[in-house]
Design a protein that fits this description.
Blueprint lengths: L6 E11 L4 E8 L10 E9 L2 E8 L9 E6 L7 H6 L6 E5 L2 E2 L10 E6 L3 H13 L4 E7 L8 H8 L3 E5 L8 H7 L5 E5 L2 H13 L7 E4 L12 E6 L4 E4 L5 H7 L17 E7 L3 E2 L7 H6 L2 E3 L4 E2 L3 E5 L7 H12 L1
Parallel strand pairs: 8-9, 8-11, 9-10, 11-12, 13-19
Antiparallel strand pairs: 1-2, 1-6, 2-5, 3-4, 3-7, 13-14, 15-17, 15-19, 16-18
The structure holds flavin-adenine dinucleotide.
Amino acid sequence: MRSDITWTTATIRAIRDVTPTIRQFDIAPDSGVPVWAPGSHIDIGVVIDGRADLRSYSLVGEPDGAVYRIAVKRDDQGRGGSRAMHALREGARVSVSSAKNHFELEFSRPDYLLVAGGIGITPMLGMAATLLRRGMSFRFLYAARSREELAFLPELSAQLGDKLAVFVSSEGRRLDFASEIARLDPEGQLYLCGPMRLLDAARSAWAESGRKTSGLRYETFGSSGRFAPQAFRVRTSPQGIEVLVPENKTMLDALVEAGVDVMWDCRRGECGLCVLNVLESSSEIDHRDVFFSEHEREENKRICACVSRAVGGVIVVDTAYRSVDLAADARKEAAISA
Ligand SMILES: Cc1cc2nc3c(=O)[nH]c(=O)nc-3n(C[C@H](O)[C@H](O)[C@H](O)COP(=O)(O)OP(=O)(O)OC[C@H]3O[C@@H](n4cnc5c(N)ncnc54)[C@H](O)[C@@H]3O)c2cc1C
């Protein structure tokens, strides 16, 4: 579906562990590194159980013209992409896409609140460095479950000083969005990258503050749900195709592999292109998207097939696909041109 990106082969130049589970990679593309803006990410080709796949990684810091720097958290519950990344060694050859940016920083605001949760630190580092270099007003809030998960903390503390506040939940310090948002200039913007729970808290505090929704910008790395992924069946209407969605596959991939016509783009529950109407579900739906409002998620009338799942059982969806009578279309065209 995407045609605006280019691919190149690249070499892993350097690897460094920044926490026990987060590993930093410096990747030198054969075709050089074009300039990119903070918030950008690249896709990288990974091989999982002998099968080629892609994973996205935000670019760390600011462009240096020599390498793409990324930091990857090993997710032992995931489908294997991060484990494949951690298995790479210096000198390995990989394929990388050009940088894409769905999380652009606007520079026109008087004040900024940057919020990172866990591995969501990666795109925020470049934003902080750029705002600092431009002498703009901002604060940086960094939240994690434990202190050892705070990647890049020494560098950030040295760079940001008292602009930085750290919230470690195992130490009993939690981020209070209402008071943080109250300190932000009325025309300021909040940029957040982190898990869904953090985003939900930010979204509800932002809404309660009465600020314009355009002031809250975020990126999620997709897919942390309320339930552990488990297998379920999806039946499509009107075709009546029934497909098993194993625990390690998304509903979108299972449908596409079964030949069902579904549109998609972002694959992380943000753009809404893969939304399907839910006609019936024998079990709860684990909404893992950030596309729907809280109210829409509670209604359970629609589902983002790229990230959300049924919690077991069978779900019946309307794919909005209607078979086309090509012969009738050809007859119609012939009649018009006659
Ligand atoms: C724009 C963007 C930027 C990103 N930047 C970074 C980054 O800087 N650093 C980083 O470490 N990661 C980043 N990611 C996430 C990264 O692309 C991978 O998703 C991550 O490395 C985990 O890959 P995985 O294959 O190990 O796990 P995945 O299979 O992708 O699983 C990740 C999580 O999704 C859930 N999950 C697993 N299987 C399913 C399923 N079938 N259906 C729904 N949910 C499921 C689980 O909760 C699991 O913990 C980014 C993602 C995006 C979209």
